[in-house]
Write a structure and sequence with these properties.
about 260 residues; mainly alpha; about 75% helix; ABC_2_transport; membrane; cell membrane
């Protein structure tokens, strides 16, 4: 029986008990025995933002107060996307026993991965708040534009996660492939560099703007820091969202039925 990706997502949100509780249980058991507890979820963001951010800002001749929020916001968004996509490749294999027992609403397992990535994103928000406070270019009004852009990023994660999850159930090498692609894409995403350092009319600028993560991160970060957003970014994200959900819906409807056999 063919399944609808959007229909399954809607059902998962209507009945969130499984993926929310299992995510909470995993995180609770992971941190409860640690003396510092949830601080370890915040620690990577602090080190990356204020350690590496200050270091790279100095190397490139930027002020720490201006470069740290630029790098920090880019980092936590990049981590949200990469954790979601990388772990989605093994989401079905990791829950093979549930799937074989008849729990075939596969979006539950994708949402479990995204919920875990969202937890780490939320835990990094205090560090982001500190970075924005010290930023000389922080625009509080820009938060109103960043919120819908963030929702757009999450919607894109939804269809991307569905595609790599189905492919990962069929081909185990997809996990390694996606990991390598995401690692490579870091270099072409404006996290440790500014977008204006790769002008659109240059080869390196065109290569960077072919990267979806470039536009996803810029759309959220730029309004908060008073940085300009290219019109291309809005067009790119609109096409990516519509085209991505169409492709993901087709793949899910066509191949989701085979996941219990593949896992």
């Amino acid at each position: 029986m063919s399944r609808s990706l959007i229909g399954d997502y809607i059902d998962s949100f209507r009945n969130p008990g499984f993926w929310i509780y299992s995510t909470w249980l995993e995180l609770a058991t992971k941190y409860r025995r640690s003396r510092l507890g949830l601080f370890w979820a915040l620690c990577p963001a602090l080190i990356y933002m204020f350690g590496i951010g200050g270091f790279f800002g100095y190397l490139q001749g930027h002020s720490a107060a201006g470069f740290i929020p630029h790098l920090g916001i880019g980092y936590v968004l990049f981590r949200l996307i990469t954790i979601s996509l990388s772990e989605s490749t093994t989401a079905f294999q990791g829950h093979a026993s549930f799937i074989l027992d008849g729990r075939v609403r596969l979006t539950d397992y994708i949402l479990r991965v995204v919920a875990k990535a969202m937890f780490y994103f939320v835990m990094a928000l205090p560090a982001i708040a500190v970075a924005l406070v010290i930023s000389p270019t922080f625009h509080p009004a820009g938060l109103l534009m960043s919120l819908p852009a963030f929702i757009l990023v999450v919607l894109n994660i939804g269809w991307m996660g569905a595609i790599v999850a189905v492919l990962g159930a069929r081909l185990q090498d997809v996990h390694e492939l996606i990991g390598s692609i995401l690692m490579f894409s870091f270099l072409f995403t404006p996290i440790i560099w500014y977008a204006d350092q790769a002008p659109i009319n240059t080869v390196r600028g065109m290569i960077a703007r072919a990267n979806p993560l470039y536009h996803m991160i810029e759309s959220v970060r730029a309004p908060m820091l008073g940085e300009p957003i290219e019109q291309l970014t809005y067009v790119y994200l609109a096409v990516l969202l519509l085209g991505g959900w169409l492709v993901a819906s087709f793949i899910y409807r066509r191949y989701a039925r085979y996941v219990p056999v593949w896992v």
